[in-house]
Amino acid sequence: MKVQKEKRFALLMAARDSDYVKKMYGGYFNVFVEALGDQGEKWDLFRVVDGQFPDRDDLQNYEGFVISGSPHDAYGDEYWILELCFLLQTLFAMQKKVLGICFGHQVLCRALGGKVGKAYSGWDIGIRKVRFTENFSFYGFLDGSFDEIPPTLSIIECHQDEVCEVPVGAQVLACSDKTGVEMFIFGDNILGIQGHPEYTKDILDNLIDRLLSNNSIEKGFAEEAKLKLMKTEADRKYWEKICKSFLKGRWITLSL
């Protein structure tokens, strides 16, 4: 009898845990695994923001990688960001599945030849409705449930940077009234999502408080964002399905 090999995934953590997330969830790692993990998988944490990277010889043993959000700029030149870019180029060459979230979406774009920068329209904080482009229709799920995905989905957002131009050969899969590149795919193994599929509303609510306390946003803006947050829900289950289907080989290209 053949024993099925345990599938391994790696979270490349580009932010440090907030006190709130540590208290309520035990850290962002648990938030990601709860959203994207399945029974029988092994998830490893690498705090790349602190210079912790996977061993090069071990990369081949992972099914996929997830890059988290971060308060840092994806276009910055800190040593760990440059090292992360090199790692992402390596994973792309190896054709490993890589999912980038928020900062991860942006740094993936940068590493593979696209352009990122400050958003012309400023901060986007709250629950944003994004529209899938025509390119999205060229993909599907192995279980045939792709048609169940609505043409628009709401997602939690918290960013002031954005993808300005995707790498040559990449396809924009979603956009919004605020951001031109909400989601992109490059080949069969790279997917970037500007929003936060893993966030809960309480995580964002606490993050708004922290941004206000460190003077990153104005009080009026924070109050309005919190009020809107109370009235809207994100389509988390759909986003989780999209992310998990991509990471775990259940996402297929129909035609291009």
Automatic annotation (TrEMBL):
The keyword Cytoplasm applies. It is found in: Cytoplasm, Cytosol. Pathway: Secondary metabolite biosynthesis. It comes from the Eukaryota. One of its GO terms (molecular function) is peptidase activity. The keyword Cell inner membrane does not apply. One of its GO terms (biological process) is glucosinolate metabolic process. Its main location: cytoplasm. PROSITE patterns: GATASE_TYPE_1 (PS51273). One of its GO terms (cellular component) is cytosol. Residues 25-201 form the Glutamine amidotransferase domain. Keywords: Cytoplasm, Hydrolase. This is Class I glutamine amidotransferase-like superfamily protein.
